[in-house]
Amino acid sequence: MKTIGLIGGTSWYSTVDYYRVINETVNKQLGSNASAKILLYSVNFEEIVTLTKQDNWAGIENILSTAAKKLEIAGADCMLLCANTMHIVASQVQAAIGVPLLHVAEVVAGALNRQQIKTVLLLGTRYTMQGDFYTYCFQEHGIKIVIPNKAERELINDSIYNELGKGILLEQTKKMYLDVIEKNIIEEGIEGVILGCTEIPLLIKQVDCTIPVFDSTLLHATAAVDFALSL
Fold this sequence. Notes:
Elements: E1 4-8, H1 12-30, E2 38-42, H2 45-53, H3 57-74, E3 78-81, H4 90-95, H5 104-114, E4 119-123, H6 126-129, H7 133-139, E5 144-146, H8 150-162, H9 171-188, E6 192-195, E7 213-215, H10 216-229
Parallel strand pairs: 1-2, 1-3, 4-5, 4-6, 6-7
Helix pairs in contact: 1-10, 5-10, 8-9
């Protein structure tokens, strides 16, 4: 079994889900008392949030690359950034290490392709929704991304930083997300929705939606297990 390196704490609520899903999946596949070999570097989320608001991605890159190097030295065979937004600097982090960084957008694209979905709503922080790391990846797969309008993006972004990232789950916020999804089913003909922030799956589940939901945390963590158990 290979060792999985997790760069988490962004936020720690979703990092807990990464740890849980990886271990549950390893145990399901191997049975008995099997669990995953994991190295975790948990950053101070307050530092990351402050740098994000300052648009200081060089500072974020430095923190994440330093963490990745330490995990590699400690013996990690692959690396995961446990937050979608942090993939804005994924290529720089990958360049700093000699082991593969499993990119969340590539993992999600694979899941969409398996279900032959070509038009999908992307929900996440404003940096993820307005950024290009999902777009560039999906263009190669012929997948069209739809994002909410500006007002909706601000509501979603605020809910992530002020509620979900603090473990606050409100019914009115859940309704807001579901209204945005339903609106885009009608107006944009979306066939699926990407929960492109690792905190959103804490609030929105497949049972809440009438179209396929792609939980980026679950897909990313499962891909790490596939890597760890591969020959």
